[in-house]
Automatic annotation (TrEMBL):
Domain D-glutamate N-acetyltransferase-like C-terminal residue range list: 135-329
Annotated protein name in UniProt: DUF1611 domain-containing protein
Pfam families in the cross-refs: DUF1611 (PF07755), DUF1611_N (PF17396)
Domain of life: Bacteria
Length: 343
């Protein structure tokens, strides 16, 4: 497990020119889970997206106590675009450190490296895994592990894992959220960026992320991608294999019919098939693995439509279906189903 990070907080959240909120999930995650660490948001000119924080430029944010600018977006490919660089230099010149979960190393951009050197600021990359990671052993290890898996990217795996961790702790259980992506790492202050790990070591990194623990300890592991994603399935499989989960919770967005960003030629399979696909791989390492239920992202639906969608899916699959953001008795039922699956 990686050491806890000491991040410069509070921060200004940068959403650049990303107008689709699905790709501003880092910013949204910070605002929803650690709002006390966010003083404001900042976008490039012409970007209409707003997330509800005060709109501040770096100088104004610094005056309100901000110590860093966090790149709060995660577009496909995870690259820092050239047209963002002047704004990032502006943040450094205003006295803010830069924190990034992108694949592009901050120090590899000459203008940022020069500005950081000139102003004595830090460039902090979250998507750099430890230099030496093991190949997975595959050996069983004690402890209880719950992994959130998905039908696609950006369907609620992180939110579900965070909500379940909180619920387990509220019941007096020893539970830890294990972050596997940049947003989760920012929220938790520790974790491993699984999608930046070389393929041979992904499962080994997952073993480190959820290590040997007491038999009654729960690791709630943030899932990544989907086994049916044309681009990211390898990451999902490595994380699933190395996590050795006892319990799976499948996450899906209501109404999503195909892989986001790939078009209708990549339809999503029925959820029942996705459950069986994930369980088939999970049971190679943990024969008793079970799916406890479905986390359904109903953010685009009214309360009435959301309840109808959850009820219909519950009847179809015979499993608890819940939107963890809405909570309520449905969420309680999912927590109880997770706990009921102890071996």
């Amino acid at each position: 497990m990686s050491e806890r990070l000491v991040l410069p907080r509070p921060c200004l959240v940068f959403i650049a020119d990303v107008s689709d909120p699905r790709y501003a999930k880092t910013a949204k995650g910070l605002i929803d889970w650690v709002p006390e660490h966010c003083v404001g948001e900042w976008a490039l000119p012409g970007n209409p997206l707003r997330l509800g924080l005060p709109v501040l430029d770096p100088a104004a944010a610094r005056a309100r106590g901000a110590r860093s600018l966090v790149i709060g977006v995660a577009p496909v490919g995870g690259r820092i675009l050239d047209n963002w660089v002047p704004a990032l230099v502006q943040a450094l010149e205003a006295g803010l450190d830069l924190v990034s979960g992108m694949h592009t190393p901050l120090a590899g951009i000459a203008a940022l490296a020069a500005a950081a050197e000139r102003r004595g600021r830090r460039l902090i990359d979250l998507r750099i895994p430890p230099s030496e990671l093991p190949v997975a052993s595959g050996r069983p290890r004690p402890g209880r592990r719950l992994l959130t898996v998905g039908s696609d990217c950006a369907v609620g795996k992180k939110y579900t894992a965070l909500a379940l961790t909180r619920a387990l702790r509220e019941r007096g259980l020893n539970a830890d959220f294990r972050a596997s992506g940049q947003t989760g790492i920012l929220i938790a202050g520790q974790g491993l960026p699984i999608d930046a790990v070389k393929a041979d070591f992904i499962a080994g990194a997952a073993e480190l992320l959820s290590p040997v623990a007491d038999p009654d300890h729960w690791d709630v592991i943030e899932g990544q991608g989907s086994l049916v994603h044309p681009g990211y399935a390898a990451v999902s499989l490595g994380l699933l294999s190395g996590s050795q989960p006892d319990v799976l919770v499948l996450c899906h967005e209501a109404g999503r019919s195909h892989v986001s960003g790939y078009g209708p030629q990549f339809p999503l399979p029925p959820l029942a098939e996705l459950i069986e696909l994930n369980l088939a791989h999970a049971r190679l390492r943990r024969p008793g693995a079970r799916c406890a239920g479905i986390s359904l992202n109903t953010g685009t639906l009214s309360a009435v439509k959301a309840e109808q969608a959850m009820a219909a899916l519950e009847q179809e699959l015979g499993l608890p279906v819940v939107d963890p953001v809405r909570g309520g008795t449905r969420f309680v039922a999912l927590v109880e189903a997770c706990l009921a699956l102890r071996r």
